[in-house]
Automatic annotation (TrEMBL):
Entry annotated with the keyword Oxidoreductase: yes
Lineage: Bacteria, Bacillati, Actinomycetota, Actinomycetes, Propionibacteriales
Protein's name according to its UniProt entry: SDR family oxidoreductase
Organism: Nocardioides piscis
GO molecular function: oxidoreductase activity
Family, per entry: Belongs to the short-chain dehydrogenases/reductases (SDR) family.
A Pfam family of this chain: adh_short_C2
Length: 268
């Protein structure tokens, strides 16, 4: 086997959540190009069908399942759907998540709990449902979680989102300990990536310049930067990694994006 062969997933089956666009769509296509059949899920059926077409263009099979993945039962159901359609399951990519930035005084308990449910509970529900299938067959299986640089560093306005993403990162480490050695569990601290979540940055040159100047590599990332890291973690190339969080963020250490939120000390 050549070293490049270790980056292939020939005839594997993967689930990618939040796959209608952005990081999830790029990841689904990357896994297909590496040889995997892919179950993709998100809210928008139209977006999923476009991504499914790109998977099929790569020569692999796609199953598109529109669902609201904040419903943990809907997320869990993806595992059985993958096995029913393709007969096996090898990789779960827990990509769905998010929360809008909001200043602390406007972040109530419900907002915090909603962020935790969408970013952590969904991943837990799907991974638990997938477990019996991941333990079937030969070889290592893998779970990959998509966290954020705000899960490892502070940024004003992200108390709900950052707290949830930090919890997801530690969930990754703890789950890796529980599921070793048969199932590897790793994640990614994602930096600033040009997806719809950064539309406001793309439209405001001053915000884009802030991010670029704070990033040592001097640019905002592309979805394929993350998709390539997911492929590494999911494939045999990453066979000796578990419980690890890769920082795919252009080298940024402390994001300091000015969203116009007031200094709390000046308002109370």
């Amino acid at each position: 086997m050549s070293i490049l062969d270790r980056f292939t997933l020939t005839d594997h089956v993967a689930i990618v959540t939040g796959a209608g666009r952005g990081l999830g769509a790029a990841t689904a296509v990357a896994l297909a190009q590496a040889g995997a059949d892919v179950v993709i899920s998100a809210r928008s059926a139209d977006q999923l069908e476009e991504v499914a077409g790109r998977v099929r263009d790569a020569g692999r099979r796609a199953l598109a399942i529109p669902a609201d993945l904040s419903d943990t039962d809907a997320a869990a159901a993806l595992a059985q759907a993958a096995v029913d359609e393709f007969g096996r399951l090898d990789t779960v990519v827990n990509n769905v998540g998010g929360a809008m930035p909001k200043e602390f005084l406007k972040t109530n308990v419900a907002a915090l709990e909603d962020a935790f449910r969408f970013n952590v509970s969904t991943a837990h529900a799907l991974t638990r449902a997938a477990l019996p299938h991941l333990l079937t067959g030969d070889g290592q299986k893998s779970v990959v979680t998509i966290s954020s640089m705000l899960g490892r560093s502070a940024g004003r306005g992200y108390v709900a989102y950052g707290t949830a993403k930090a919890a997801l990162a530690h969930w990754t480490r703890l789950t890796a300990a529980d599921l070793a050695p048969r199932i590897r569990v790793n994640g990614i601290f994602v930096g600033s990536i040009m997806t719809s979540a950064l539309d406001v940055v793309a439209e405001l040159p001053e915000l884009r310049e802030q991010l670029e100047s704070q990033t040592p590599l001097g640019r905002i990332g592309e979805p394929d930067d993350i998709a390539a890291a997911v492929l590494y973690l999911a494939s045999p190339a990453g066979a000796y990694l578990t419980g690890k969080m890769l920082e795919v963020d252009g080298g940024i250490q402390q994001p300091n994006l000015d969203l116009g939120f007031p200094d709390l000390g000046s308002t109370v």
